[in-house]
Amino acid sequence: MVDGPRSVGPLRWTLLGPVGLRVGEQAVDLGRGKQLCVLAALLTTPGQVVPVTTLVERVWGDRPPRSATPLAPYVTRLRNRLEAAVAAGDRPALRHQAGGYRLDCAADGVDLHRARRLAASARSARDSGDDLRAASLFRRALADWSPVATRTSDGRLHVAMPSPLEGRHRMLDGNALRAAVLGANDGLVSNFSLVMGVAGASAGGAPVLVAGLAGLLAGSLSMALGEWLSVQSARELYESQIATESVELASFPREEEEELRLIYEAKGLDAERARDLARRVIEGDAATALDTMSREELGIDPDELGGSAWVAAGTSFVLFATGAIIPVLPFLIGAGAGAIVASAVMSGVALFALGAAITLLTGRHPLFAGLRQVGFGMAAAAITFGIGTLLGTAIG
User: Fold this and answer.
1) 270: exposed, middle or buried (C-beta count within 10 Å: 0-12, 13-18, 19+)?
2) Would you tell me how many other CB atoms lie within 10 Å of the CB of residue 199?
3) Which regions of the chain are under pLDDT 50?
4) Which of 265, 299, 259 minimizes the C-alpha distance to 12?
5) Residue 176: its H or E element
6) Is 123 helix (H, G, I), strand (E, B) or coil?
7) What is the pLDDT of residue 325?
């Protein structure tokens, strides 16, 4: 967040996500709560006067204050934030005028209005039969969509704020950690339950070892195949989108140049530089143009395409097998009640460790999460052990 020195650069207002302002690549701290509600209400009609009564209704809903006086401090603080953070030449004027307030900023600098313009252009292209261009423009219109500023059931404007600890999300590879923990947890819980079910029916004999190893192999292969299909399907989808983009570049180079120009302008380049850069990219090497449009318009890295399906499958196999082998280990060297107890103890320790590891994502206390995981895992194993015992008695 910008706090102190004034920033210079193009202004990018956001309504289709956390309400706010970016100057160049820097986010500007414009306050919280009702202050941002005021900003959101002004940005819905940039450059136009929003009556005080409308602002009050949008901020307080059906429980407005007795007068408009409480609105003034929020407007004043918002104006002060803009003056403190944005250089004078770039600063939008927030004016009191004709019974309301007006924020003077370019409509195309607001993501909501830019998305509406692109959507209108997409509908025009669709109506004229240009489906490829229409699809491309609709993708652009939806690219920044992340509905956060909404009305609540009582009519008030609700603004969801990013967490003050948002930087922590960037420090953790959340997807990778989640996949690792949940993959191992799937293997552990499913095979622990299977082993306990067979142990209940056979009193911990050789069938438990056979069933446990079979469950490990079957589950690992199933997880690996599912992961391979998931990643490979995503890769094929990306390849199809890139192929479509290649056709659009060959068939409608001027339209693609215009789209790239708009993208560069949205990122902060002035109109002339954006137009020149877009022209040089589209008129240059075809492979470079396709790579650029894939990254800038589609958000796809052609060099990655979502990662390797084989690596994902192998990782999933190993993680599931790592969890699934734990309840089987005691039966490799023993049998009977001793092996059953040892399997339960080892699985309980592993469940606690996995539950504690999940707190790196959830932020909960490790003891609580670990005990919760143990409770659920043991409950599942107890159920299958009881059913196995009943079936073993009935069949035996």
Assistant:
1) exposed
2) 30
3) 1-8, 147-175
4) 265
5) helix 174-202
6) helix
7) 94
Question: Distance between alpha carbon 210 and the CA centroid of its chain, in Å?
Answer: 42
Fold of the domain spanning 11-107:
Arc Repressor Mutant, subunit A (1.10.10)
Indicate the domain borders of the chain: 11-107, 110-148, 173-232+308-395
- For the residues of 287-312, what is the DSSP string, one character each? HHHHHHHIIIII---TTTTT--HHHH
- Give the DSSP H or E segment for 313: helix 309-325
Residue (of 172, 206, 179, 174) closest to 322 by Cα position:
179
Cα separation, 340 vs 336, in Å, equals 6
Query: 96, 92, 8, 82: which is closest to 46 by C-alpha?
Result: 92
For the residues of 78-100, what is the DSSP string, one character each? Answer: HHHHHHHHB-TTTPPPEEEETTE
Give me the pLDDT at residue 253, please. Answer: 84
pLDDT in tens, 75-104: 888 888 777 766 655 567 788 877 788 888
pLDDT tens by residue, 204-223: 678 888 999 999 999 999 98
Q: How far apart are CA 42 and CA 52, in angstroms?
A: 11
Token pair listed for 323 = 């969890």
3-state secondary structure of 119: helix
Q: Please tell me the pTM assigned to this model.
A: 0.51
Alpha-carbon distance 131 to 124, whole Å? 10
Give yes or no for a contact between 2 and 28, defined as CB atoms under 8 angstroms apart.
yes
- Predicted confidence at residue 394, as pLDDT, reads 65
Alpha-carbon Rg for the chain in angstroms:
29
Tell me which residue has tokens 């609700």.
158
DSSP 7: B
